[in-house]
Amino acid sequence: MSNHARIADTEEVARYAADLLRGGYHCSEAIMLAVGKRYLPALDETSVRMTTPFGGGIAGTRAELCGALSAGVMVIGGLHGRLMHGVDDSLAYSLAEALRERFIQRWQTTICGPVHDLAVHPDGTSGCDEVVAETARILLDILGEPAL
User: Fold this and answer.
1) How many domains does the chain have?
2) pTM here?
């Protein structure tokens, strides 16, 4: 896949994630539906439902980890997590660490409330659609490969 095609594809996924958020899904659900379904073709309803309470920094409190970041880590776990102890988990850890670090570079924190406040659109409306889109871009870049 050419770099240009990959960028266009990344932007399509990022737009889709933002559209899901604007359509009423939580940030965590939007990432799982847009990126998770792309990389995890066997993703089931239970896995998507598991992301619901992460929306808005856990139950809308804005006091904890951003839901978009939480779901991104879940996607990484779905791809590279382990099913039993003793199995090397270094790839899952390094990818999750890279996602976290790049998220912090962009938003200065991982906590929902401050991220939400930084992302406000000039008209005063929530900018969480951009947080979701940017998290999707970062996650796709970190995964660095075409969907399965």
Assistant:
1) 1
2) 0.91
